[in-house]
Amino acid sequence: MNPYTSRYPGYDVLNKRDTPSWDAITRKVIAQRMATPSEPGFLDVVRWRALEALCARIVPQPADRPQVPLAGMVDMRLQKNAGDGFRYARLPPLREAWLIGLNALDEESKARHELPFASLEHAAQNTLLTQMQHGELSSSHWKGMDATLFFSQRVLPDICGAYYSHPYAWNEIGFGGPANPRGYVRMYYDRRDPWEAVEAKPGKERQAMEKNRRVR
Amino acid sequence: MTLSRQTWTGVACALAGVAAVAAISRRRRTERLLHIETSRAFNRSSALLACSVLTDSAMEHYRGAFSNVAMYVPPAVATCSLLAGFHGGADRTPATHTVRHAIYWGATLTGLAGTGFHLYNVMKRPGGWSWQNLFYAAPLGAPTALLLSGALGAAAERLRNQPAHEPRLLGMPAGKALGLLSGIGLAGTAIEAALLHFRGSFQHKAMYAPVSVPPAASALLLHASLTRPQPRWLARVVLQLTWLVGWIGTALHVRGVARHHGGWRNWSQNLFNGPPVPAPPSFSALALAGLAALRLREGERR
Fold first, then answer.
1. Of B165, B198, B220, which residue is a domain's last?
2. Cβ–Cβ gap B65/A186 under 8 Å
3. How many A×B Cβ pairs under 8 Å?
4. Which domain range does residue B156 map to?
5. To the nearest whole angstrom, how far is the Cα of A187 from the nearest Cα of chain B?
6. pTM of the model
7. What is the rounded CA–CA span in Å between residue B218 and residue B21?
8. How many folded domains does chain B comprise?
9. pLDDT string in tens for chain A (216-residue length)
10. Which of B147, B188, B249, B266 is 20 to 30 A (C-alpha) from A208?
11. How many CB atoms are located within 10 Å of the residue A30 CB?
């Protein structure tokens, strides 16, 4: 990957693994997250394929860098049944909502195109998702679940949340990773602590890259 | 008969001993002039204050990424003031030292300019003159410490040129002038401690100490300077207490850093996040100056 296409050239949050920025617990948690397998543990293969296709539409990832295992992270969450601690009263619990949603998405796809969601062209997938977002899908396969709510309260938060909890996404947005145990001491606009990423100003990419090498 | 080498060595040692004793007793014979001793105390006090300023400004300006070139000036000037203080503290010459005097004036002017810079920094931030910016923008009181370091040193240098009998400074008896200077300095430093301990919502009872003992010392010292000279044991005791408050405060600030998340193992963050370790010795420095001024003041005629 050409480092200069990044706003934070040369920055890799994982380089801080063995510096004072991370402690044992941070290392353990991030290692677990990095080791998330890209295969189903909770879903069956059919729904797993639908989930993979859905993730690729919600957060398309550049092909020239390692991929965040989005479907694997959502599946892991379902496996652990790790809810939010609250839910919309009109939505079923986490696992049930995802099972109904992925199943209904495939059924709606088959009804229109005679193909499961994962086998559609990207444009057709987008159309179907837009319809889901606008509440235009309401076949009996939804079992009374509101498709709009499923989209806004499960699909978006769960997939985007999983994406931005991954170090690859942190590198992309220049996020410093867990503040524990270092803490921020320069709490003012446009100031960075030595453990934060350096944003490249146009024409100053090389300098930013040099500085990002020393981030720890 | 030839004397052995050992004998010669013994004789040489004895002669050297005699010479050393003679030198010491001769030095003892030179009269210690009170106003020169006061000058030296002020040089030392200025050095301790400069030491605080050097550490504090180097740390805080590093935290501010030296975003303005002028931010390099205070650590450099404070280093000069510190060295001048060491030199002056050991010097009994009853005459102004030109280089030291110049350094002290430089420190005074730098402190003055720094206060202006810090005021500008507070005012340019959104909200301008507000508690938020007084707490978190460039601290207004910090450059004043450099100003004080310079002023104490400059006063010490001028005092050296005065006659031993009834020395005068700024048109008044020297003890009075120095008492006023240290008294005002103590009050100013106490105001800064009050502001920052208020920011820290006085979360520890000891945080009241620097806003009660030094103001009392300041008031007693100013009183002693402005009234007819006489022995002032209470002022002396409270000044000694202020000296102690400075050092105990340093220890407590060290402990405050330890109490932050990660403690001293996370020193690179907690030295900035925790209470400033170099700050409390300023009280000890000003108490030293105050005590020396009081000693001089007590012997004055009016």
1. B165
2. yes
3. 30
4. 32-165
5. 9
6. 0.80
7. 43
8. 2
9. 455 678 999 999 999 999 888 989 999 999 999 999 999 999 999 999 999 999 999 999 998 889 999 999 999 999 999 999 999 999 999 999 999 999 999 999 999 999 999 999 999 999 999 999 999 998 999 999 999 999 999 999 999 999 999 999 999 999 999 988 888 888 888 888 889 999 999 989 999 999 999 898
10. B266
11. 21
